[in-house]
């Protein structure tokens, strides 16, 4: 299917509702918040798991990133193909139940492979969230509202990070790391029930199938849904998609690396100062202090960056801003991340972390809006799934693992603390390269967006 065919197949006027669909957007955002909470909580308790199960840093990186990303990335595309033809609300409900149950099971793990298997399950479940959720949001919002709507949805990342860090940090010092997963997993099942009962897919009932009632019918082809090969060919022909995707892959490569190892970094490099500060504040232990500090740093900074990026994407008429906004953020994030790791005070370092968190989170609204704008309306879930496959295979799958490998290598000569410090400084420099990719995306983006 050519871009000309896609244009002809589009409705002449956007079907987005006049009123901003805040209820649906917030509910989808709540699902994404729980999704990211379940990912993030592993990171705050990672140092406890490392010592309890005798793991190396590369194994921490693997369970944080690679084990999760393998199924999360690869299953996103077939799940998205189902989402193009089925009831997306029901699909998201099923996904929530699966990943919430697998998060709970992590608390029973006795070794690295059991941890990895449970994380496979979390990735399997979460692959059914973002492609159908973003497709759903795009269908009910006008183009000029889309960057803002998607930035609100993506507030799930910083809010989930804040809750994961703060809850995990406090709970692990009080009840231990295993009980943390028994507490944070089950709420997702309750939200799944709410979504199934109250969130309606706006597609015609004649064109949708409930996967809970008829899973086989959900896979039957429909003429009005572009084929997978057509979607892939259309996206591959767009220079804007290629450069935006590459830039974002490198951005999240850094972001996921930082998130996976920030808690271990502070607990190793600032151990003495954290213990004294936690005692003076009446906190149960240093991990709770790190959880509080990182929750504020990542959560507040990430929320501000996500909102700033989303509003910037809708404020200016030129579509080039969809590339320039994340590009500027990525360029400035590299040196500010590096500075975080050389500040001698743990308190000031966690406070300063807000700055790179803002800068590295400005991509969400503009990038996702551009991907949706480059896609046919009935291939949006597939386009997002292809994008997320590349994003998570490179960023989530390789980022934390790379930091762990570099850290283990440097630890032989520098020690565990400084080895991790320099591994994170080295990886943070990749963010500057991503800014160059966004720069190359700007000009073709304005020409290639369908709407």
Automatic annotation (TrEMBL):
Query: Any transmembrane segments, and where?
Result: 18-37, 58-83, 89-109, 152-171, 177-199, 241-267, 287-309, 321-343, 349-369, 381-402, 422-441
What is the first-listed, main subcellular location in coarse terms? membrane
State the PROSITE patterns in the record. Answer: MFS
Q: Which UniProt keywords apply?
A: Membrane, Transmembrane, Transmembrane helix, Transport
Domain Major facilitator superfamily (MFS) profile positions: 24-446
Among InterPro entries, the record links this protein to: MFS, MFS_dom, MFS_spinster-like, MFS_trans_sf
Location(s) in or outside the cell: Membrane
Question: Per its UniProt record, what Pfam families does this chain match?
Answer: MFS_1
Q: What is this protein called?
A: Spinster family MFS transporter
* Biological source species: Ponticaulis profundi
Question: Which taxonomic lineage is given here?
Answer: Bacteria, Pseudomonadati, Pseudomonadota, Alphaproteobacteria, Hyphomonadales
């Amino acid at each position: 299917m050519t871009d000309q065919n896609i244009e002809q197949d589009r409705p002449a006027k956007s079907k987005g509702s006049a009123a901003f669909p805040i209820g649906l957007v917030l509910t989808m955002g709540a699902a994404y918040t729980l999704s990211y909470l379940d990912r993030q909580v592993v990171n705050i308790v990672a140092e406890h798991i490392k010592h309890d199960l005798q793991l190396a840093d590369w194994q921490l990186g693997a369970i944080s990133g690679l084990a999760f990303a393998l199924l999360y990335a690869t299953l996103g595309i077939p799940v998205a193909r189902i989402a193009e033809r089925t009831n997306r609300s029901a699909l998201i409900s099923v996904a929530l139940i699966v990943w919430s149950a697998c998060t709970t099971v992590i608390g029973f793990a006795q070794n690295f492979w059991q941890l990895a298997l449970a994380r496979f399950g979390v990735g399997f479940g979460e692959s059914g969230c973002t492609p159908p959720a973003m497709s759903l949001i795009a269908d009910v919002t006008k183009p000029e509202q889309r960057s803002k709507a998607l930035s609100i949805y993506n507030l799930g990342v910083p809010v989930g990070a804040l809750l994961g860090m703060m809850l995990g940090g406090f709970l692990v010092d009080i009840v231990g790391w295993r009980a943390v997963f028994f507490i944070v997993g089950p709420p997702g099942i309750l939200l799944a029930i709410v979504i199934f009962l109250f969130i309606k897919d706006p597609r015609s009932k004649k064109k949708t199938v409930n996967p809970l009632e008829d899973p086989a019918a959900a896979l039957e082809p429909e003429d009005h849904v572009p084929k997978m090969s057509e979607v892939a060919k259309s996206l591959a022909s767009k220079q804007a998609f290629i450069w935006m995707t590459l830039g974002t892959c490198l951005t999240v490569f850094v972001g996921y690396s930082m998130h996976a190892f920030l808690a271990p970094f502070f607990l190793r490099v600032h151990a003495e100062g954290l213990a004294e500060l936690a005692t003076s504040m009446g906190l149960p232990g240093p991990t709770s202090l790190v959880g509080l500090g990182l929750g504020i740093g990542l959560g507040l900074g990430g929320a501000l960056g996500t909102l700033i990026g989303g509003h910037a994407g809708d404020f200016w008429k030129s579509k080039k801003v969809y590339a320039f906004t994340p590009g500027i953020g990525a360029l400035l994030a590299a040196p500010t991340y590096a500075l975080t790791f050389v500040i001698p005070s743990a308190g000031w370092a966690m406070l300063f972390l807000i700055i790179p968190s803002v800068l590295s989170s400005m991509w969400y609204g503009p990038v996702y809006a551009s991907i949706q704008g480059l896609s046919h309306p009935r291939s949006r879930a597939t386009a997002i799934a292809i994008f997320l496959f590349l994003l998570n295979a490179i960023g989530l799958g390789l980022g934390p693992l790379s930091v762990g490998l570099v850290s283990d290598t440097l630890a032989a000569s520098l020690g565990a603390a400084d080895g991790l410090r320099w591994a994170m400084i080295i990886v943070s420099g990749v963010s500057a390269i991503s800014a160059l990719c966004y720069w190359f995306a700007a000009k073709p983006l304005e020409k290639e967006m369908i709407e």
